[in-house]
Amino acid sequence: MLICTLSRPEYVSSRLFFADFVIAPFALEECRQELSPEPGRMRPFSDAVTASASTTSTTAVATTVTSEQRDSPWCSARPLAIGIVAVSMSFALIYFLMIVPLTTTIIPSTSPFPPTSSSSSSSESGLSSKVSQATDVPLINSTIFVPTTDYISTTTEDPLYQYIEDKHHRLQIPLIHIPLLYEVNLKLFLPWKPSVNFGTDNFMVEGHVRVHFTSGGGSRVLLHSDSEQHVGECIVQDEFNREIFVKHVGRGFPQVLDLHLATDMIHGMNYTLDIAFRSHMQQEVAAGLFSVPYTNGNETRYVVATHLQVSEARTVFPCIDVPEVKAQFDTVITHPTGTTAIANMMDNSTVVDGGWTTTTFRRTPPMSTYLFALSVSDFPYLEVFSSRGVRSRVYCDPSKIDSAQLLADVISPVLEFYEDYFGIPYPLEKLGLITIRQTAGLYKEGQFPIAQKHNLQEIIAHEVAHQWFGNLVTMKWWNDLWLNEGFATLISVRAVDFLENTTWRYEDRSAELQCVALRTDQMDGMQPVSGSKNSNFGRYFDARPAINAIVYKKSSIIIRMIERLIEEDIFKQGLRRFLSSFLYKNADHEDLFNVLLYVHDSSAGGHLSGQNFSLSDVMDTWIRQAHFPIVHVNRIEGSIVTLRQEKYEHNVYNPPRPNEQVWKIPIFYDDPVSSKHKVFWLTDKRPKVFDMGGQHVVDPHQLTYMRLRYDMDMYSDITMALLQDYKSVPANSRSRLIDDTMAMAENGQMSYKVAFNITMYMTEETSYRPFQTFSAYLDFFLPRMYIHESWPVYKKYLEMILGGPYDKFSNQGLDMDIDEDSDLYHTREIVVLRACIIGYEPCVQMAKERFAELRRNCSGEHQLLSDNCNKISYYLRSHVYSAAINYGSKEDFDFLFKKWNLEHYLMERDRIFTGLCYTNDRANSDLAWKALVKNRARENVLARAGICSKKLINDSLLLELFYEEKDYLKELSETADQVLHSLLMLVVRNINKKKDIDKFDEMLKPHPLFTRMLAGNRYQAIERMKWRQFTAPYFAGNASEAIEEMGAFQRNV
Ligand SMILES: [Zn+2]
């Protein structure tokens, strides 16, 4: 199932800007899609949800982001991967995979159970009638619960249990017993519509699980089970149905259920364990088994979904919740009649009994617990079949389902693309289960920007790729999550190229991913891509924005380097071999490297041939070490240069910190003689002589994960070459030049003048990628410069870079039909966005005129909602709304506010709200934000705050609101702490004066938790003030000099 949304260009930069806001919004209202083939995984939902909806998890997220990172400019996603959506995608955790082969049922030979899709209590598996009853009858009521609060005997001194308190440790549960099958029965008391009411049982879950396992002996059974799960009776039986008395159920550790049996089990014998339990659906957090409201006509209804990555399966039913323990699942869901239950597998039977419906699903193939998935809703669906008959359904809120068609249309081609790529047919009858937010899943031609379409395609392609890479073959432990995510991130771009019959995306997106990853990875304290197998992965997941960049983006670049090193075809062959060798099993990166190397060595050529190191040797330097190298390029003569590596240090230390890190760096180049790709190796710290072969830059296609630093003469020559013919340097390299020089200037390693000189050619630039990189840095500079006395100087520089391109587009007509999927279209979008934001007069004027026209055309009550009267191009809307509200009247605000209240589509609502937050009026501001907060079931405050933080109005309206309305602040802190946290981040973002810091401190005094959570943001505000004081004058001076030099150059031409 899928939940969908819309994206827009402005998200792009907003997320750059608000690095600490990167967490995706959670707008659970709409669509869901069930991709039919069985392997379901859901993903996008995943973290996005967790972050935004919860009151607690975001907090953790935000507070763990390193403070440096918060404010750093990011190369953001291009419109194609617009903000929220991109985030969600990258966050996307893998979800489920259920795999049931289409033609043959997969049953591990060790499984004692028939492959049929028996219902869980089927007598086929020889279960006793007592247990069968237990599953049919709600045997759980509070009176039978055994007290489980006491705890005996296990101590962390026992080496087996030393990690037991560590939720995220691989060795938390000693893997003594091997689960083979879980029979999961869940009864969901979902008041899905107002007329359905279970009283105090509303949102309760009654559950029963029967775990079939092979014992490793001993008298203890440990399972993961969340402490919120109220566990009732536990019954253990051996394979002859003889019950073994459970002496005690220990609950001494919050995540673990610890059963002490009266007698020892026999090593190698199969047992069953029956556990009854009762728990609550999550309502605040989209994690575990959760319910979410949506609007159906005048009613508020509820749907249910799951998101279990990484360790939430234990909140749904007791299990051994680690990825390397795969088992099969028989799922039975009892849900209110009128709703439909979907799960990983195809349903086997549906029995209606009055107000309850029981849906039984076929048995899954072996899979990890985090892939378990289900959803219950009254959503209608669209259905499609692949050419091989794999069924996919897209479930969606009825009012949006007409915008879900693209989603349905994308699935089958993507499946077929992967079947071909991986050489393994999709093994299930239906697509499993994927959930996605509305914001990511809806698209309607002509009404949504094309970027939304590509986002959607990429997300689906990412998730579906996991059906093979992640679900069919799963990492042993989360330390290798990078492999799944990096690969899915990379391959999904290829899939979109396939869908769109293009080839440019792969290279372009790689450049973008690299830019974002470098930006994160240069910060102190970053984790390597791959941690130790026994490490606690929790810390990897806590700081989500950073993790996102490392686990998804850096790893995708590393994987792309591997692909280039061993050549594309060999890489593909290796993957096929890897997947078929580890089908339904777990593997780690060593397993993959071994297979790739085997394939590489068995073929002719490849860039490792003749070297005295292996692929693993090379890759260890990239995945085991955090950070990355910078390669210094110094000219000897002509094309002959020396290349020398060292670790890139973003922060300047005096004296310099010793660093011993060395990488095995492949420098890719095109051999001018053979015109083949070649590799020049830099494997130690000594300078090596290299012939650039007439190229202006090293690694022209930006294939290696590193920064480059040229000597000053070379920078001058490069600048000149760009001014004379910028296309003599490939677009990715133009983007990289801007990125590297800006990054190095940031901490004084180089003058900003070098960077500004490089950008001077951009008045002619037509490619999106360099603009995007440039734009990302604006998110860093603009809030610092805007209120500075030298702003006019800097603005003059910006108008020079952006004004020319804007005028060109404007002269052609901003509504001119450009292929939405073209580089030029994206360029136009970002140029207009930035020109309007910096207040470039022609752009502001255009916006005002168009808004006035909108008011004339759409003023009638019934017209407000109509899209027909709105002639403004989608890509221009939020800029038009913003400028209108910024420079307009109270009537303009009222008009737009009314429109926002009526609007159904989240994407348009977001555009409108972006405009509303540009108000300069305190009363309007209060009105807009309070309305947004009130309506938070429908939209994400965090994302809106992120977008609004971009507005260049030096206001403290929101600070005033909270400062003066202490009761409101208190109320939010008690009822919506996450929302408040988002808003307070925005407040700090707008703090530019010492007196406002004082106000802020005073305001938060009664709320020490927020003071703590926002300490990093507050620190950033102070750093911005310092930057303004000490760096801004030089910064502006450098800009001014660059302008003069440009003038001189133009006079000479
Ligand atoms: Zn993924």
Automatic annotation (TrEMBL):
UniProt GO cellular component terms: cytoplasm; extracellular space; membrane
Family assignment from sequence similarity: Belongs to the peptidase M1 family.
Upper classification of the organism: Eukaryota, Metazoa, Ecdysozoa, Nematoda, Chromadorea
UniProt keyword annotations, A-Z: Hydrolase, Membrane, Metal-binding, Metalloprotease, Protease, Transmembrane, Transmembrane helix, Zinc
Residues in ERAP1-like C-terminal domain copies: 700-1014
Name listed for the protein in its UniProt record: Aminopeptidase
Active site: E463
Every Peptidase M1 membrane alanine aminopeptidase domain range: 427-622
